[in-house]
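To whoever picks this up:

The parser on our side crashed when reading a file containing two proteins. I've narrowed it down to the boundary between the first structure block and the second sequence. Both blocks are reproduced below exactly, byte for byte. First block:
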Amino acid sequence: MNKQLPLETEFSHGFTCASCGKLIPPLAFGGRHRNHCPHCLCSLHIDHKPGDRKSNCRGIMKPIGIHVQQNGEWSLIHQCKTCGTIKINRTAYDDNELLLLTIAAEPMMSLPFPAKKIISTLHRLSTENER
């Protein structure tokens, strides 16, 4: 189900999330434009450059990861479900914290190698350092 908003939609005035359908108010502070839903963290692929509203794709951008900037601020990594484009968007003060943590921890839940031996080694090393 791809509910699409017209390109001229101005997210600084709030919007209805195309993914979860919730009504999203404008940001109270922390930025000029809200670019994703604070509940499901999805966005719309409507920009080539931030704020230009020039993309014709308008697919739903799903959060696929977290990027931690040098200043410690978190950003969401979004990938368009329609065309595959990847974009980075700043998180907002009212974003779903549990979902943010789940996205950040997901790579640790699907390690490409057996973690049991490494975890036991780390545990042994940490207890040796306490002695």
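<<boundary where parser fails>>
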Amino acid sequence: MDIIIHDGRAIEEIQQEFAKEYPNLKVEFFAEARHRNPMPHPLHPALLMHPRKLIKECRQSHAKGMLSIHPGMAIEEVEEGFWNAFGLHARIYHKVGADWLEPATRHWSLEKQNVTSLESNAESTLERI
């Protein structure tokens, strides 16, 4: 999957593209922190950017281009790719029941985390029946 990044794109467009490929994962973008740490942790919820905001509103670097994402990439690689190429603070979350949580296994591939979340959610649905 290739995601085109430029200042005129809305965050929700990127989120929708990502969700089509990985329905049990989601990518969120955060306002650029005052410091230049690429992966501030934890990211404060107040910095979460609204999906209708434009990319230009959450970064100071205005590079445009394409980020190639494939299923074998680690979650942390994707987040670092958004930062290194485009100055975007991105976090990937996985679905657990009705909640979206930061994975403790950031070294897992997107595919593995997506499938694990799907299986976990299927099991919890069956338990409720």
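After patching the parser it read the second block fine. Residues 2-128 form one domain. The chain has one domain: 2-128.
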